[in-house]
Specification:
- The complex is a heterodimer of chains A (217) and B (123).
- Chain A is built from 4 helices and 8 strands, in the order H-E-E-E-H-E-H-E-E-E-H-E.
- With 217 residues, chain A is of the alpha/beta class.
- Chain A has a domain of 139 residues: Double Stranded RNA Binding Domain.
- In chain A, strands 2, 3, 4, 5, 6 and 7 form a 6-stranded mixed β-sheet that branches.
- By secondary structure, chain B is an all-alpha fold.
- Chain B has a single domain, classed as Tetratricopeptide repeat domain (Serine Threonine Protein Phosphatase 5, Tetratricopeptide repeat).
- Chain B is built from 7 helices and no strands.
- In chain B, helix 5 runs antiparallel to helix 6.
- Chain B is globular.
- The chains are: A alpha/beta (217), B mainly alpha (123).
- Chains A and B meet through helix 1, strand 1, strand 7 and strand 8 of A and helix 1, helix 2, helix 4, helix 6 and helix 7 of B.
Chain lengths: 217, 123
Amino acid sequence: MVLAAFTVLAGYTAACAVEPSVKTRVEIPGTAAFKWDAYKEIVLTNFWQEKEVKDFDLNKALIEYLRNEIAPQFKGKLSSATIAWDTAEMLNNKEAWKQVVPQAQDRIILTGKAQFTQDLRKALLAKDRRAIDDGPFAPEKAWAERVAFTFKIEFYLINPESGEILLRKDFLEAQDYENSKEPAEFAFSDLMQKIKLKLFRLFFGSEKSQERYLLRR
Amino acid sequence: MRKKFFVALILIGLSAALHYGCASSRSGSEVQFGLWASEKNLWDEAIFRWKKAIEADPKSVAAHNNLAVAYEQKGLPGEALKEYELALKIDPGNSFVKSNYKNCQENIQPPQKDAAAVKNEKK
């Protein structure tokens, strides 16, 4: 009888002794830093590039990427314009921007500066020789090559009516690849994906996933 | 015989107390139902259940906290904050609620904007 009492008691104690909380992930809708409803058209321009990238058309890839990614988020029209950049200082030249879009009303220019660089790095790495480490051979060392891509980009939203900069945001992303012949296109895509997450959170208030505790009792 | 009777009585008493304290209250079962619904991503159902749990027991910290989480998920941070505050009023030391409340508050703070962006908002 006493044994039965303890069994029941133990059973209930075990049933009640579960974790008091359970972790869950919630998708929190973000707040956009910009009111896009005020505009009917985004004019995408080529970005200022300090140095051209060998065998890779950065502006073409960038405009194509932005066009494809912005289209589902923006209700209005997307168009392109080509700017004859003299210097990066043109970004602050209001008069120049007033002339980019002939009918400027309800339109906004998305432009900026972009710098995409590629470096080959060498490092002396020890090869895994554990199998023969006990023997007379010293661990073998060899030169390893890595390619590092860096993408620095500044986005500007400009009002073509006044030439005024409405929003400016810069990003810097870098990534190393073991494959020293990694194509620039692939690296661009990887880095742009990281930038997009941050940029769109600011521009469109994209959702962010966060952890919360739900209580059991 | 008398000894057996007392043991049986203790056993029944313990069972009843544990059963009541553990999960059989109406509020408790609604909280559990809400948890199940949230696991299935049925947040509207979870909100309905946790509201019912609050009706049954307005001092249920779990119901207020969980309802706040559901409100955050639905994009209603103002309502979520109110529910977190009610939960903290009942149990000010609850670390889980405090953590949720802090994160919710951080989301509500407006993002860093350039002066120009503020101008754009006024447009």
